[in-house]
Design a protein that fits this description.
nine-stranded antiparallel sheet, six-stranded antiparallel sheet, globular, single chain
Length: 726
């Protein structure tokens, strides 16, 4: 018997309260899914490319140019092109503007090729292929065309897509976790699993956070993908971690799933203070941050604007800075930003001016030097954190130089010239010294590196002193007990024009192509960059064609062995075999002409000390002294007064009208709570955490400066000083 129930107004209201939230969220899932599909459909479809894929496809759906049998790590998993091509074909099928829109023959081809994949289930030796590459392509395929494919085929593909789940081995905290969560979220949208989507979107929403000391974003806005604490800011930390969060923030914006504004704003900080400060002008890839990927051929082009446009739809926080990056990347304006920043969690220093960009990459007992050459690339990168100092004016100075590169003459480094590099298993090493760091006030900076090579024991005290338009590079105490020479490389860079040099008691001249031993060298000029040598040393210079291949620098398979030829400038000091107290000094002047370079010797720029205890430089025009104290000691200034550091550290002292107006200090050892420094004159400071005591007998002021602790240990402290009459 059928019983009809009458709903009272009260009962109807109660049911609506229960049903509407669920119904509303279910509709929101449709909205989010439509946004994801719309993003996929932004791909431009080329009729020629579609036809090429179809022409290459065999009758069983496979492709002849893929070796399906080789699933080894070093093969690079070319199988991914199979599933990527299916996504491209599905885009052509789904996109109304495509000539293949709703083409039944195209859908049949996609079905056959997907069936071939599902039947064989190609499972690579590299987990990334199975948990990220394949699931990404297959879930995108489902979102585009899955509703029109045979149900049994869709069901058979689900376990393969399902390898992207939150308990997968690759779903560890860092860039891969958020990427895998995103793949899973897409699949839950496809299957309509609201409860599952609610859970995984919460995971994504909470991924933007500091994880200092662990995998993830550090408190200095650098990024560590692994527990080796190697810098991965512009690789995993950008293309995966940051962009994946921003992508999902955009997908769920305006819905009840919308991410907290605080999280989005923290992402903005990470982009502006971390990622973009490790890109040349915020536009181009900074090669100093690259790890094993340096072995891969690239194209030189500006980074895109999609991630910034997404942010601007979500927040107005630091809007003008984000819009400036967009304009820079689109070529609508020239760079204007000038800054210095030391990433103390990552031992990486960056300085930018509107017309040049330079970096110093180091490592210590707190960080390993370089990424392990996983899967083949990066087998020559042993020394790329040994004080590497690249200078980029346009961003392409070193573009794809790597097949012909001498990997024991890396710009800025001091390296034992071994008959050959150690094997790939001996690339990643722990640092051997604690004294590694920098002091910066946001504009100027000094860097100190007590370097001991974990590969061969080579030692050097290496300092860099960055002023406004020049920087000074010093080396002292260079020593080795191995039967090979040691070299410090001024630069190894693509040759882009004539090399002009000036030696003592001779006119400047252009070097012919070849190898040269330049004695009593005063300066060298190349492509808008000047190098001044105040001690008139002997410098080895090569300006000639170098040869190599991409296959020479990787253990990956299927890499071209074709010989590549490039003209290269290599300039270096040869310290000889078994040096014990060798050193060097040179000044780099970007964006100068030869006449300006020749006048540097009259500028008054003075190297005050360059030994194993102390390295220091004075810039008279700025009235600034920068010093690296490897141990407690005193520094005599040009006016006869002294600065005394009561402990090891790095110091910037800025003067104005013969009065120190500011001081910046940092503790590279990260062991002190207070930094004690004595400055000539009588000063007061309004800064908290600082005490200033004047000694009338010596007319000097002792400053006790509280240093950052915990996750901020190694960060600089800058304080303004007020001079008082005696």
């Amino acid at each position: 018997m059928h019983v009809r129930t009458r709903l009272t107004p009260l009962l109807l209201t109660a049911l609506l309260i229960l049903v509407l939230p669920f119904s509303g969220r279910a509709n929101e899932l449709d909205t989010i899914r439509h946004r994801v599909v719309a993003e996929l459909l932004k791909t431009e479809v080329s009729e020629a490319k579609v036809q090429d894929i179809l022409d290459r496809m065999r009758s069983d759906g496979s492709f002849p140019d893929i070796n399906y049998e080789d699933l080894s790590r070093t093969a690079g998993f070319p199988h991914r092109h199979h599933t990527a091509d299916l996504v491209y074909l599905a885009t052509a099928y789904r996109k109304p503007s495509s000539s293949f829109y709703q083409d039944p023959e195209l859908k049949q081809k996609i079905t056959v090729s997907l069936d071939y994949w599902v039947e064989n289930d190609f499972f690579g030796d590299n987990w990334h292929n199975n948990q990220i590459s394949t699931p990404t392509n297959l879930v995108n395929l489902m979102l585009l065309i899955g509703d029109e494919l045979p149900e049994d085929l869709v069901e058979s593909a689900q376990p393969i897509i399902g390898r992207a789940h939150m308990n997968a081995s690759g779903a560890r905290p860092s860039g891969d976790r958020i990427v895998i969560a995103g793949i899973l979220a897409k699949n839950l949208l496809f299957t309509g699993d609201k409860a599952g989507f609610d859970e995984v979107i919460s995971i994504i929403a909470n991924e933007i956070k500091f994880s200092t000391g662990e995998r993830g974003m550090q408190h200095d806005y650098s990024f560590h993908h692994r527990v080796d604490r190697v810098n991965n800011t512009t690789s995993y930390g950008y293309g995966k971690y940051a962009n994946a969060f921003g992508e999902w923030a955009d997908y769920v914006a305006g819905t009840s799933y919308a991410f907290d504004t605080d999280r989005i704003n923290q992402l903005v900080d990470y982009y502006l203070d971390g990622v973009y400060k490790q890109l040349v002008y915020g536009i181009y890839e900074d090669i100093s941050v690259k790890n094993r990927a340096i072995s891969n051929q690239t194209s030189f082009q500006p980074k895109g604007t999609v991630e910034i446009e997404r942010l601007l739809r979500s927040t107005d926080y630091r809007k003008a800075e984000l819009e400036e990056i967009i304009q820079l990347r689109k070529g609508e304006r020239s760079p204007t930003r000038a800054f210095a920043k030391f990433f103390w969690q990552t031992e990486h220093f960056v300085l930018q001016r509107p017309d040049f960009y330079t970096t110093v990459r180091m490592f210590s007992t707190r960080n390993r030097n370089m990424e392990i050459p996983y899967n083949g690339p990066g087998i020559t990168t042993h020394h790329r954190a040994d004080g590497t100092n690249y200078l980029q004016l346009t961003g392409n100075e070193y573009h794809d130089i790597w097949p012909v590169y001498d990997w024991q003459k890396i710009s800025g480094t001091t390296i034992l010239q071994k008959p050959e590099l150690h094997g790939p298993d001996d690339i990643q090493m722990d640092g051997l010294t604690d004294f590694v760091g920098a002091a910066d006030d946001g504009y100027f900076g000094a860097v100190g590196f007590d370097f001991i090579s974990p590969h061969d024991g080579t030692r050097a005290k290496k300092g860099w002193f960055f002023f406004d338009r020049v920087f000074v590079c010093l080396g002292a105490g260079i020593a080795s007990d191995k039967p090979h020479s040691v070299a410090t490389t001024v630069d190894q860079v693509l040759l882009r024009g004539p090399i002009r040099v000036q030696q003592k008691d001779s006119d400047s001249r252009v070097l012919p192509e070849g190898e040269h031993k330049l004695e009593e060298l005063e300066w060298l000029y190349h492509d808008g960059v000047g190098y001044w040598f105040p001690d008139r040393p002997t410098l080895q210079v090569k300006n000639q064609v170098e040869r190599g291949s991409w296959a020479d620098i990787t253990d990956q398979k299927n890499i071209s062995t074709e010989e590549i030829q490039k003209k290269v400038l290599t300039a270096y000091f040869d310290h000889g075999i078994r040096p014990q107290e060798a050193g060097y000094a040179y000044v780099v002047a970007p964006r100068v002409n030869a006449k300006e370079l020749a006048s540097l010797s009259r500028s008054g720029l003075a190297i005050l000390a360059n030994n194993q205890r102390l390295q220091a430089v004075h810039h008279p025009g700025l009235e600034q002294t920068q010093a690296v104290f490897y141990e407690a000691g005193s520094l005599s200034l040009p006016d006869g007064t002294e600065v005394t550091a009561a402990q090891p550290g790095i110091v910037l002292v800025m003067g104005k009208e013969n009065a120190n107006s500011s001081v910046t200090v940092a503790d590279p050892l990260r062991s002190a709570e207070v930094f004690v420094i004595h400055l000539p004159g009588r000063y007061e400071t309004p800064s908290e955490g600082i005490t200033a005591d004047w000694d009338s007998a010596t007319n000097s002021t002792r400053l006790d400066i509280e240093l950052p602790q915990g996750v901020y240990a190694g960060k600089s402290v800058t304080l303004e000083l007020q001079r008082r009459d005696q």
